[in-house]
Amino acid sequence: MLVQSLFALAALPAIFACPQHDNHRPMKSKKRQAAPGALPPTGQDWAYEASFNWGRLNPNYTLCQTGTQQSPIVLGLNNGLSLNHIPTFTYPSSVTGNFYNWNYGPAFTVTHDGDWTTHPSFTYDNQTLYLKGWHIHAPADHSVGGDRSKAELHFVHVDSTGHEKAVLAFRLDPGNSNSTFFNQLPSMIGFNETNVQEEITLDLTPALQAVQYFNEFWTYQGSLTSPPCHEGIRWFVARQIIYTGVEQMQAILGASTYSARAEQEVWQHRINE
Ligand SMILES: *[C@@H]1O[C@H](CO)[C@@H](O)[C@H](O)[C@H]1NC(C)=O
Ligand SMILES: *[C@@H]1O[C@H](CO)[C@@H](O)[C@H](O)[C@H]1NC(C)=O
Ligand SMILES: *[C@@H]1O[C@H](CO)[C@@H](O)[C@H](O)[C@H]1NC(C)=O
Ligand SMILES: *[C@@H]1O[C@H](CO)[C@@H](O)[C@H](O)[C@H]1NC(C)=O
Ligand SMILES: [Zn+2]
Predict the structure, then answer these.
(1) What is the pTM of this model?
(2) What sequence ranges are listed for the domain Alpha-carbonic anhydrase (predicted)?
């Protein structure tokens, strides 16, 4: 079974990149170790530096060119803030998972025992979604009011059958004190060592606290920010920024490589509707 799953991972087509967070098996030892499931796709045929052209590279990426709800988009207070789709959170104070580098920056995949409904969750519009993992892009995908943060943290959520449905986006910038959330992380795994992972236990609530549990946010109907650019993802972008210490931001940037898609034209995104 294990051998089969590892083979299935290795055989995945090289098309996903907001990472799939599929390295969710419990580790035999908590030490930093080889991580077959965390390996970046080989033979990837696209690059963030040329995101304007993804739709022409591969027939599977047509949506990147023709989609009506592509992410990211420009946001600002001229959009107002959302009064709809208010999220409420059921995040425990301790979550175990694998810390690794998704080839573009630090990432964490929640350990999965086959039942998504045991994961940290949030609820909006009477539906509950479950945290699959988080990862960081640098610089930020979403600019707000013309300002682009140094990095953006994505909490990827799936439904009870494991399909990706929503992303919580937190903008990250350097400030005057260390962030409680980032204080918990071990030394960052660099993008030059992407085949390792380490089992850690985190309290994710400081990230939510830092943005006041999304009491002010923008929401819209969007897509994955990398090929194949699948749509049907609801984005929640916190108005508040998570501020980190200068050294913390340097560690994040030192472990990251350019991973922001060019912003897309607003079309059928129904911002805040
Ligand atoms: C498109 O995706 C399918 C299914 O994942 C895959 O079998 C096929 O090789 C892909 N085509 C190209 C040109 O990459
Ligand atoms: C949520 O459920 C309640 C009670 O069934 C219902 O009144 C309400 O309209 C639902 N809200 C949404 C957004 O579906
Ligand atoms: C933040 O933490 C680092 C070490 O982790 C420490 O060197 C630095 O002084 C701290 N900065 C502040 C502002 O507390
Ligand atoms: C990866 O980068 C870190 C930080 O720059 C460096 O200390 C480490 O030696 C590098 N590892 C490899 C395998 O190149
Ligand atoms: Zn992402």
Answers:
(1) 0.90
(2) 44-273
